Amino acid sequence: MKIQQEALIEAIRHGIVDGDTTAIGVMDFDGLAATVADLKSAFSPNFYHTFAVKANALRNVLIKLQQLGIGAEVASPGELELAVSAGFSADRVIFDSPAKTKADIRRCLQDGISFNLDNEQELARVDEMIKEYPDTSAVIGFRVNPQIGSGKISSTSTATSTSKFGFALADGDNRARLIQIYADRPWLKSMHTHSGSQGCPLELMAQGISVITELCEEINARIGSQQIERIDIGGGLPVNFTSDEVTPTFSEYAAVLKDTVPVLFTDKYQVKTEFGRAIAAKNGFMITRVEYTKEMGGRFIATTHAGAQVMTRTAFLPESWPVRAEGYKPDGELRTENVVETDVAGPCCFAADLVAKKVMLPKLEPDDYVVVYDTGAYYFSNHFDYNALPRLAVYAAEKGASNSLLTLIRRAETLGEVVNNMS
Q1: Rounded to an integer, what is the distance from CA 119 to the centroid of its chain?
Q2: Signed CA dihedral, 39, 42, 48, 52: sign only
Q3: Which of 112, 143, 329, 363 is 20 to 30 Å from 158 at the Cα level?
Q4: How do strand 325-328 and strand 369-372 relate by DSSP bridges?
Q5: Do domains 3-25+282-382 and 30-281 have the same CATH topology?
Q6: Rounded distance between C-alpha atoms, residue 77 and residue 97, angstroms
Q7: Average pLDDT of the chain?
Q8: Under a CB-based contact definition with an 8 Å cutoff, are residues 345 and 304 in contact?
Q9: Partner residues linked to 313 by β-bridges
């Protein structure tokens, strides 16, 4: 019996899910601990691992990861607040937003939160502000785009020639310019790239990391000392969504890296990672209840409560982000009989709100449960709720919130926007 079915049966037995359940997400903390252990054992001791908070920003998940001894990579002020509230100390956080405000930069310099610069305009801000914090403990780097090309999913590939991220290394005389930028600033002690994403082969990821490692070696040689002490290789390890098999593994990725960039596995540099999906995805799943079923144009349709609001990428880009789903009876028994071509639909009022389309599943019935696998990252932890903001506005007004806060809530489009603007 799969662990997901065991959890479903226990949830039914304890009344956690029942005939009123809409959709819930479940995280396997034992599995999470095992995954982090696999990550640590795959790489040499000079690697320091962080978790990309955007992949799963649930506070209890972050608390568990903090307890497991890895750091937090954050890409927004809201994520930073969540990381701090989960117990991550400043020296275990790195801030990678491409749109840092002056207040964001000042906080990093003041509190010793490491960060990576995205562009020369941000560099100019730090040039001025670092004069106030000459002894900051923040490790500062520059994000470099090696411009090595796209993986299979262009919308999440970050190392294309026109990516919005980082310093375009291959454009014009940018390589020489970046070398001079480092030579002029002894406080630039790190370099960052993120060349991986879902759909990227390991060799392509390693190629991008090789490019910036060679650049770090060149800069240090030019300066005559090891000014660059840290190489931040990002994350982006793909996840297998087609079965329970974990592939590629952290060990497989480490082997490709060691073959391509062996210097990373010496003590010459601290190497930082920021895996997100690869840590969390397979350690989470969703349980949703079937509300209604019907046939339409020869297609069997099961309407559930989990759709675009909790599986946004799958609803809008189903070819790039397919997920697996199985049906269970109200007592938790796996459905196996009467297989039909099925659309598993969500509750949102647009036609593309489908968890799975034209999949062969045993015929579902109302009050059955659908389990959706591998959703521990970028799914139920990144939900949006059509009704949440109006409810929040009413609650805030009842509690006597200020007019400025009420205006912020009413003008916002998402809860995340409220959090980010308040932090």
Answers
A1: 22
A2: negative
A3: 112
A4: antiparallel
A5: no
A6: 8
A7: 89
A8: yes
A9: none
Q: What is the 3-state secondary structure (H, E, C) of the chain?
A: CCHHHHHHHHHHHCCCCCCCCCEEEEECHHHHHHHHHHHHHHCCCCEEEEEEHHHCCCHHHHHHHHHCCCEEEECCHHHHHHHHHCCCCHHHEEECCCCCCHHHHHHHHHHCCEEEECCHHHHHHHHHHHHHCCCCCCCEEEEEECCCCCCCCHHHCCCCCCCCCCEECCCCCHHHHHHHHHHCCCCEEEEECCCCCCCCCHHHHHHHHHHHHHHHHHHHHHHCCCCCCEEECCCCCCCCCCCCCCCCCHHHHHHHHHHHCHHHHCCCCEEEEEECHHHHHHHEEEEEEEEEEEEECCEEEEEECCCCCCCHHHHHCCCCCCCCEEEECCCCCECCCCEEEEEEECCCCCCCCEEEEEEEEECCCCCCEEEECCCCCCCHHHCCCCCHHHHHHHHHHHCCCCHHHHHHHHHCCCHHHHHHHHC
Tokens of 144: 């470099």
CA distance 204 to 237: 11
How far is 138 from 108, CA to CA, in rounded Å? Answer: 7
Give the end-to-end CA distance of the chain in Å, rounded to a whole number: 44
Q: What is the pTM of this model?
A: 0.86
Q: Which residue has the higher pLDDT, 196 or 137?
A: 137
Comparing C-alpha atoms, which of 51, 58, 212 is closest to residue 144? Answer: 212
CA 130 to chain centre: 30
Asked if the model's pLDDT at residue 402 lies above 80, the reply is no
Query: What superfamily does domain 30-281 belong to in CATH?
Result: Alanine racemase (3.20.20.10)
pLDDT > 90 in the chain, percent: 71
219: left (phi over 0), alpha (psi -120 to 50) or beta: alpha
Residue written as token pair 């970028």: 378
- Token couple for 262: 């062996």
For residues 57 and 382, the answer to whether their CB atoms sit within 8 Å is yes
Please give the structure tokens belonging to residue 209: 């990391």
Sign of CA dihedral 295, 299, 303, 309: negative
Q: What is the CATH number of domain 3-25+282-382?
A: 2.40.37.10
